[in-house]
Write a structure and sequence with these properties.
The chain is an alpha/beta fold. The protein folds into two domains: about 270 residues, 3-Layer(aba) Sandwich (Aldehyde Dehydrogenase, Chain A, domain 1), CATH 3.40.605; about 190 residues, 3-Layer(aba) Sandwich (Aldehyde Dehydrogenase, Chain A, domain 2), CATH 3.40.309. The protein has 17 helices and 22 strands. The strands form six sheets. It has a seven-stranded mixed β-sheet with strand order 14-15-16-13-12-18-19, with helices on both faces. The chain has a six-stranded mixed β-sheet with strand order 9-8-7-10-11-21, sandwiched between helices. Strands 5-6-22 form a three-stranded antiparallel β-sheet, with no helix packed on it. Strand 1 and strand 2 form a beta hairpin. The longest helix has 21 residues. The radius of gyration is 24 Å and the shape is globular. It starts with a helix and ends in a 12-residue tail after the last strand. The relative contact order is 0.13. The structure holds adenosine-5'-diphosphate (ADP). The site of adenosine-5'-diphosphate has 15 residues, from helix 9 and helix 10.
Amino acid sequence: MAPELNALKVEPRLWIDGVWADGSGTVAVTNPATGDLLAEVQRGSAEDLRRAIEGAQRAFAAWSRAPAALRGEVLKRAAALLTARRSTLAALLTREQGKPLAQALGEVDYAASFFQWFGEEARRLCGRIQPHPTPGFEYLVQPFPAGVVGLITPWNFPLAQGAKKVAAALAAGCTAVWKPAEQTPLIALALAPLLVEAGLPAGGLQIVTAPGRLVGEVFTQDARIRVLSLTGSTETGRSLAAAAVRHFPRLSLELGGNAPFIVLPDADLEKAASDLVRLKFLCSGQVCVTANRIFIPASRESEFLEHLQPLWLQARVGNGLHDGVDAGPLIHHQACQQVRALIEDALAQGAAEVCVNRTHATDARLAAGSFCAPTVVRGVRDDMALASTEIFGPVAPILTYASIEEAVWRANGTPFGLAAYVYGTDVARARAVAEALEVGIVGVNEWRPLRAEIPFGGIKESGLGWEGGEEGLHEFVVLKTIALPRASVNIGTKENL
Ligand code: ADP
């Protein structure tokens, strides 16, 4: 058992109507750095999922009518509790997901920032009175909570991806059924008792670990689910969207990416190289917004690689719980094989490895872990799978370009449109490049632009809708417009008062 579970009052079960419950069967959750078993977690059946939806529907009656300020207070208390317990939560997150402890602490803080932000935004959700073209009438445009929502999250940021959705849904007055990834349900379950302590009524958030396909079927076949919010692969988004035609829940989809990292000819190469290492070592590159294609001016490639190489090799890969580790394992062995196959395919077509960081290989305790050596590959072409697929691993494919126009055109030559990075000292030019890129978010000389206060969402096949910002709240709100007679009351005139 992970020792943090007791401290956080977490049981490896389902969380329905404010209590722990058994499902049918279990799923083994292991530490990807060592292969150690952390817990056998109860798995929900279709019946358990429907019971969870039913409980959320019951809880919706009161929570949706609670004053927005009260809902906001609960969320802000949750933010404070997350912050107070950040060390224990981060240790559990590292054990279950594999990322280094410092990154896990960052994720807990990031998750807390969404509870804080939406706790504040809850009471700013306003309607409006609008003039009617017919005399004697007016319009009320009113926001209402959408209803019960279904949330599905992946294993790369298992706390933060959930926090973004849960906090926004609860702030809007919705109640939620959350299905975490089966590889990382423990950190999700840790939110359950914490939210109760913060004042969330039973049924406000139900958490059911279950196989993705089953959850997709139950959520799309149940007319009570009014918003279906997924962070996952584009393939999963497509299958949910196809099934959603049955009852038309609103779809909020954060899907795959293939982010270009464009180094302009006037860029500070040292900064660009150092930011690239931080970006690619974050969660070992298992991030939808990570840099997937590194575009370098052909004339500056060797200079850039001279900056990149020592930083890439100095970083330490290992068990995230050990001091000084910069990158952990991948989520499982199959992920390592998939990443390696992409590298081998590029090498077979003429690309070359520039440097490979094998620092984990010296630690015998990691022999059973799912480690993938971070690799820089040069000579990559747009048509290689390494450049056209979302790698989801610590690989930096280097592509060279001759003109900025060409770099932008090639950067946009993908069905994905999630994130991009632009490095250059002429900020006006970097901004023009950023504006020409077909993506939802761009970091200019910044490797981690995501924050709770700004909307983040993909375009093209990277998704629908937004998380964070004011817009994140609106994903869980429906508008109702009421046209009604304008009361006409004679209160006299100035002359006869
Ligand atoms: P990843 O490759 O990052 O695991 P997935 O899209 O496979 O991305 O998984 C993200 C989440 O979606 C996980 O919680 C997974 O269980 C869930 N999932 C996978 N397939 C489906 C599906 N057909 N319907 C609903 N959810 C699914």
